[in-house]
């Protein structure tokens, strides 16, 4: 059997109910997870690394940088076929996208988690872990980038997004559809991800980029505050295909004039951003003012790409547009 590395970071998949509080907390180790699959896998063929043990809302960019370094070291070893990373589902897609952008490898890197904790009778962690290990050992998974695999389905890191707070069928790929699935223990791919980017890390510290949402009656004050507080870049989660109101527009123009790059995403889960309309605050006027549209990236994924772009010194609207349209 090919040797896989298993990295744990915490989350529901390693959580159990605390008898004192009645609340779930991340407590299990990677070895304890593997012990849930007795006779199904050869634990000796899995190299375990317990990286951190956190609820995923506590995961920060510094953790991404550490994970990237660990995974890159592992995949460069001849005796490692690939890596499985367990992670809380709340911010799993952000970690997946960061790793997809920064890792340089054709070996499978598979991220999985669970929606139900280990104290629940229908705990989904063991099945998700087993499937991730199968993908890790699958030759067809090579060159696919970072994969998100839960509930028998396989998503590309760029497209994967959590769509339900509790349902085990939470990770979806929107209008693009799943990359593949586990069919009776067999890994089956239906397509390959073609929109792939690579931006190597230049430093251990990432530039500060904030996200500000547009909503009815938004004043633009949070846009100005983000710039005043030292944000190196800003992502605006706009409405429709990338529109804001007049007050937000005025604030965005001001921070662009101050030299802060602004990327415009949309709060709508499908369809992405695009040009159109001529009112104050339309996507057309925002682009004319120097903002950049995020294409189909969510605000949180656009933030990660902008952070890495700024680390590379990419700040002009033209260069950022080419990056986000790739």
Strand content: 15-25%
What count of helical segments does DSSP give?
9
Q: Strand order, biggest sheet? A: 4-1-5-6-7-8-11-12
Radius of gyration equals: 20 Å
Distance linking N and C termini: 37 Å
Q: What is the CATH topology assignment of the largest domain?
A: Rossmann fold
Number of domains: 2
Largest sheet: 8 strands, mixed
Low-pLDDT stretches are: none
H/E element sequence: EEEHEHEHEHEEEEEEEHEHEHEHH
The tally of beta strands, per DSSP, is: 16
Structural class: alpha/beta
Multimeric organization = single chain
What is the correct CATH architecture of the largest domain? 3-Layer(aba) Sandwich
Helix content: 25-40%
- What would the average pLDDT be, to the nearest integer? 97
Task: Characterize the structure shown.
Helices cover 28% and strands 21% of the residues. It has two domains: 4-189, Rossmann fold, CATH 3.40.50; 209-325, Rossmann fold (3-Layer(aba) Sandwich), CATH 3.40.50.40. The strands form four sheets. An eight-stranded mixed β-sheet has the order 4-1-5-6-7-8-11-12, sandwiched between helices. A four-stranded parallel β-sheet has the order 13-14-15-16, with helices on both faces. The chain has a two-stranded antiparallel ribbon with strand order 2-3. It has helices spanning 30-34, 61-75, 92-102, 125-136, 221-228, 246-257, 283-288, 299-311, 317-325, and strands at residues 4-10, 15-17, 24-26, 46-54, 82-86, 109-112, 146-150, 153-156, 161-162, 171-172, 180-183, 186-189, 209-213, 233-238, 262-266, 292-293. The mean pLDDT is 97. It contains nine helices and 16 strands. By secondary structure, it is α/β, with parallel strands linked by helices.
């Amino acid at each position: 059997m090919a040797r896989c590395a298993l990295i744990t970071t915490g989350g529901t998949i390693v959580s159990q109910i605390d008898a004192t509080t009645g609340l779930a907390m991340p407590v299990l180790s990677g070895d304890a997870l593997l012990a849930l699959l007795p006779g199904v896998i050869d634990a000796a063929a899995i190299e375990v690394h317990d990286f951190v043990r956190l609820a995923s809302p506590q995961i920060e960019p510094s953790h991404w940088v550490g994970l990237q370094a660990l995974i890159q070291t592992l995949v460069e070893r001849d005796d490692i076929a690939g890596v499985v990373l367990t992670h809380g589902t709340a911010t799993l897609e952000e970690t997946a996208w960061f790793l997809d952008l920064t890792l340089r490898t054709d070996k499978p890197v598979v991220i999985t988690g669970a929606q139900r904790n280990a104290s629940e009778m229908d705990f989904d962690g063991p099945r998700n872990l087993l499937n991730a290990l199968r993908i890790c050992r699958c030759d067809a998974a090579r060159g696919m980038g970072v994969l998100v695999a839960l509930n028998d389905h396989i998503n590309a890191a760029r497209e994967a997004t959590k769509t339900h707070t509790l349902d085990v069928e939470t990770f979806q790929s929107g209008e693009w559809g799943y990359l593949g699935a586990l069919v009776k223990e067999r890994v089956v791919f239906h397509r390959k991800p073609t929109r792939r980017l690579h931006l190597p890390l230049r430093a251990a510290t990432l530039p500060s980029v904030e996200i500000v949402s547009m909503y009815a009656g938004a004043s633009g004050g949070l846009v100005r505050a983000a710039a005043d507080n030292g944000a190196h870049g800003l992502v605006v989660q706009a409405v429709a295909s990338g529109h804001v109101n007049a007050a937000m527009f005025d604030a965005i123009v001001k921070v662009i004039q101050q030299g802060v790059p602004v990327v415009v995403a949309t709060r709508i889960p499908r369809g992405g951003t695009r040009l159109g309309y001529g009112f104050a605050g339309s996507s057309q006027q925002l682009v004319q003012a120097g903002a950049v549209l995020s294409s189909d990236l969510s605000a949180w994924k656009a933030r990660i790409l902008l952070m890495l772009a700024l680390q590379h010194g990419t700040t002009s609207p033209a260069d950022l547009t080419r990056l986000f349209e790739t």
